[in-house]
Amino acid sequence: MVIKAFLFDLDGVIVDTAIFHYQAWRRMANELGFDISEEFNEQLKGVSRVESLEIILQHGGLTLPEERKAELAAQKNQWYLDLVSRMTPNDILPGVPAFFSQVRDAGIKTALGSVSKNARLILDRIGMSDAFGTVIDGNKITRGKPDPEVFLKGADELGVSPADCVVFEDAVAGIDAAKRADMIAVGIGSPDVLTQADIVVPSLEHLTVPQLLKSLDRTAGLDVY
Ligand code: BG6
Ligand code: MG
């Protein structure tokens, strides 16, 4: 195995938009008369807008007509975009710029693998539009995570075999997608939540490229950082 490409999730890995998604969904749930907890929110991470809405409505015990669901999804997106519109390069998560410069130095290819339809907009806001070899977002795929499509497409566009790819993910669904794509999964967050990840670190700030490559090299069975 030779690591040739790193595939990054966006929300919760490069920027902390995961909290904006939660705030917007919570506002919607509250207006519908129920609440969603942070713990509940874990299962929404990495899941598409439409599927997230279904999970939330089921949680609230609501069955709504398609038309109303479309209105709610659009309203949630508007609230989300209001939060995103205030973002600047200062919102890039700690450790990301330094990690990316090491990735470039190591000659490793990069892809963004996000199911968000707003990914391009966010990359523009934070000044990272040109940071990736290729960008796969919600507009380029038909199936959200945990389906591996987003990562397989990223590897394909980079011309790299899935087995030579490492995925960086903060979502349970994203780690599942990476494993189904036959890739190495680095979890960003808590090992208690991201139980299927090969390695888990609190953030990219806690990782260097040489250290990661060494750890992947050392362990056929990869250890927890
Ligand atoms: C993922 C987020 O990146 O994108 C999910 O983790 C979100 O929470 C999904 O639902 C879709 O995003 P968007 O921006 O298209 O609504
Ligand atoms: Mg994420």
UniProtKB/TrEMBL annotation:
Which cofactors does it use?
Mg(2+)
Its EC number(s): 5.4.2.6
Listed A to Z, the keywords are: Carbohydrate metabolism, Isomerase, Magnesium, Metal-binding, Phosphoprotein
Which domain of life does this protein belong to? Bacteria
Catalytic reaction annotation: beta-D-glucose 1-phosphate = beta-D-glucose 6-phosphate
Task: List the Pfam families hit by this protein, alphabetically.
Answer: Hydrolase
Q: Which PANTHER family match?
A: 6-PHOSPHOGLUCONATE PHOSPHATASE, HEXITOL PHOSPHATASE B
Q: Which family does it belong to?
A: Belongs to the HAD-like hydrolase superfamily. CbbY/CbbZ/Gph/YieH family.
The record's section on NCBIfam families has: bPGM, HAD-SF-IA-v3, PGMB-YQAB-SF
> Which protein is depicted?
Beta-phosphoglucomutase
